[in-house]
Amino acid sequence: MSDPSEAFISVQPNNASLIEEALEYGWTELIQSTSCPYPNLKQPLLTDQAFVALLAGERGVRDWQPKDTLDSQRKTVDRAFEIHRKAGTRFGLSVALDAIDCDVEVTPWHQMQPRQAPYHIECIARQRQTPIDKSAAHRVLSRIENTKSERDTIDLIMAIGTDSGLAFSGAGYQVLCVDESMTGTIRDVSPGFAPLYWGAGTRLIFSTDVEFGAIA
User: Which CA distances in Å does 143 have to 49, 61, 65, 112?
Assistant: First the structure.
């Protein structure tokens, strides 16, 4: 906002009315107080929340749901072009459902046992964060319907994902073992004699670094 002590320079002619000058001054102050939306205006993941829906219309998002979380809306708009290009394929379904925080396994008809009719697919979907309920199932089904091929028929299975694992951790510790021993005898030697005796000594040092670490 400009300094109130500074003189306002109007671009209007001298015969402008007071209301015209007031509107000009008000719009000037409003524009100057607004931060520039660039360069993030066209980036769905970074732009202001108010522009996300506008970008969705610009990029032709078909499955737009105002009830989706803001993060899901941003991801949907960000990957809209990729979803359009890959629509009707298993990869396209995976990308489209990933945008609404959902993993999916797609099995085509020729890989099923027993084999199903042509163009039939089975989708096993897992919600990452949202609990499974009727509304979540309808949301996933709506996204699939807007991404699959027109000729495809689907069976949707909502699965519950579980994670399990076993972890070990440890710290390195040096183990040092020293063994000293002597074998043989050295007899007392009387004065005037110089016999030769032999002796042997051994020194065994065992050192190791123990480091445990495994994640399964």
Answer: 22, 11, 10, 23
Q: Classify 184 in phi/psi space as left (phi over 0), alpha (psi -120 to 50) or beta.
A: left
**Hey, which residues does 157 pair with through a beta bridge?**
124
CA distances in angstroms from 162 to 94, 127, 136, 165, 207, listed in the order given: 19, 11, 18, 10, 44
161 has pLDDT over 70? no
Q: Which two tokens stand for residue 184?
A: 């043989």
Provide φ and ψ at 98, rounded to 5°: -65, -30
> How many degrees, rounded to 5, is the angle at CA 155 between CA 67 and CA 94?
60
- Amino acid 106 reads V
What local confidence, expressed as pLDDT, does residue 216 receive?
38
CA distance 90 to 106: 6
Q: Which of 154, 97, 164 is nearest to 130 (CA)?
A: 97
